[in-house]
User: What shape does this take?
Amino acid sequence: MHSKVDLLSPWSETEKEVINSLSTDSRSGLSLKDIQKKHEQFGPNLISVKKKASRWILFFKQFKNPVVYILMLASLIAFVLKEYLDAWTILSIVILNSIIGYLQEAKSETSLEALASLTSPKSRVLRNGVTTLIDSKDVYPGDILILEAGDYVAADARIILANQLGSDESILTGESLPVDKNTTTLSKSVPLGERSNMLYASTMISKGSGRAVVTQTGKDTEIGLISQMMETTKPGSTPLQLRLEGVSRRLIFLGIIIVVVIIAIGIFQKTDAVIIIMSALSLSVSAIPEGLPTVVTLALVMAIHRMSTKKALVRKLDAVETLGATDIICTDKTGTLTTGKMKVRESYIYQTQKEHHYNGLAFCNNASLDHGGSGDTTELALLEYMADEKVDIHKLKESGHRLFEWSFESIRKLMSVAVQIEDHCYIYVKGAPESVLSKSLINEDDKKEVYKHINLFSQKGMRVLALAFKEIQNEKVSGLSQEEAEEGLTFVSLVAMADPPRPESSEAIRKCLDAGIRVIMITGDHPKTAEAIAKELNIIDEKRNLVLTGTQMDELSDIELLSQIEKIAVYARVSPSNKLRLVNVLKGLGHVVAMTGDGVNDAPALKASSIGVAMGRGGTEVARQAASIVLTDDNFSSIVDAVEEGRAVNGNIKRSLQYLLSTNLAELLFILGAVIIGWQVPLLPTNILWVNLVTDGLPALALATEKVPYGYLANSSRPSSKSFFNLAFYMELFLVAILITVFCISLYYYSLGRYDLLTSRNIAFSFLVYVVLFRSFASRSETLTFWEMPFNRPHLVAVLLPLLFQLGIQKSDFLMGLFKIKALPLNISLQLILIATIPVTLVELFKIWRRK
Assistant: This one.
């Protein structure tokens, strides 16, 4: 239904040419007959959005996990062998973990189809010569939009009439200042951010009024093109997914080897087939840390809770951990690094014109600070500057009254007012420095001094305004033309404005640099403005000092961009495709990229990045839905706090994984060793599942909730995006596994010589529970011993409860029948508890030795 208008660059055509191309009329708009044809040709002015996955699809997605596949196979084998208790136990664990994963993902999936709802609900259009209020979805190419300050633009449109018209295009271009609009025909090569004769869907009219002819609607608008870019952009796997997939592959490989070894041993020893299968099943289950999905989920959920107190809301669980692996943060400037609010940062008052300086700022101004402030952002900044200077603005304005105003025009770049103050009448003029100076009576030497300050302010990326005045006789005001009012002026002053950095941004960037994280500024602002802020915040340094514009980026091939990319600190005047390309290039180099943004133009890059961070206060809903994390205070320092949480949760998951794998490896070696020796299988699948889920699980969950130590970011290293494992990880893993295996085999050998099989299995089973519980104390830190750390109450409870359960099993005939064991006297249980403290003590002593 939707066909595209054949207007490739309406900004390069005259108003008449555009109107003729669209078969419309600037004075009467579309007719009823035209509207019917347009509806059939273009359809509604809406942006299509993909449907969300159903709840069932979301649930069954949880089963797409290699570890789950192994457990399902183990459950099936147990059913075939009529070991129904084992089969149902394993199956219950799989379903429980899937339900937990589903609930977490369903909670985080809160997409509101924001792209479809972005267009303004109502629009004023000219139809049959009558101004009509219609639904924005019913706007078609050729419609004449009638616009005033505060209106949202329903579609892309070519301006045909502009009365001091200005548009806020920050959500599309990233430009922090409103853009003055006119009807001037431009060249085809003008970039989007500089198309002063165009208006774009979902931007807002910030001032003035005008008319524009709609050129593109729906998916063909600039925002529509971005939405299509988002649909074709697929988020890559997160570092956490990559690492857990690596663990799963190793476990599957290990499981296959185990089955082959057991079958070979069974055939060699001529063992009964049922015993061979049960032994293989026990070993396969022992190799799998069933509690790992739950542990990872809880670690992330706790981190999400902590991050919410630090102004960061997480929409996707794995986003927390991904932040920890981030080594590049591509950040927006306006509102994230800066306050997002114009402020007078410097001024220059010529000679002794201080009184006229403040008079000009007050009277040549239509804004107000009352009721939170209203009016043009530039004029508000001038009033706030006066308030900071302790000027009583109300008293000053009451001292005189305006007689007449010559409004600002983009052609002459001036605004002027006539003011009566007591017995005197003054003309005050405010505008672009070159325009004000051209109409001022000032000698060449003084003019050079003024231009020296203008250049100095401009080099710092600031916007400069000039003030001038002249005194006239009261009777001459009436009938005074604008040209006569703005000639023969006395130059007064300069004010330089900019969007200043947030006070906390500098410290946050320093933290990033200390932690090995590179910060890149990406903005729609002017290169000079971006460069000035980047230098002030130390984003630009000796190593990375290049500023690249979007146009320059388009001229570079991928190879040329790669050759310079490590030196580029700032990207200015960028388009959505520029941002997307940069993210893909950086990810292609192996970087984990966090991208911040607030506008529709940021959405594709937010979605494609390793971790998208959107602004919650000043951002658009589209950006928030494309991102994984939303900052409620739009503050860069909150990103840094989130990165610290990400690294901390990575450490928690790593230690929990180390704990689970070391104990599971010990179980595996114990069972494998017993089978090789020729003993009866010491642990059955139900025994192993009890150890893994009730004893391993609870302490592992407690380890996952360890709080972030003070200064953790500076003292931590960025985790690998490919593996949890390093030399220290392997050293402790095998040390613990071998220690526990030696103790288990020794106790089982001792027991088989003194007791029957069921009692011997209970001794091995109970000892393994106790030693696993105590081993968790050594897993709280990679470097510190448990007696050097403060108590973690959840961890103490997680150790005490399973220990009491294990002792309670000895008093329950039902549970002993469930686990196929025989009861132990209390004195033997206490002896086993005492022996179980030896391995953890040896591990902690090894830490001290390794530190030294």
Summary: The longest helix spans residues 636-677. The chain has 34 helices and 21 strands.
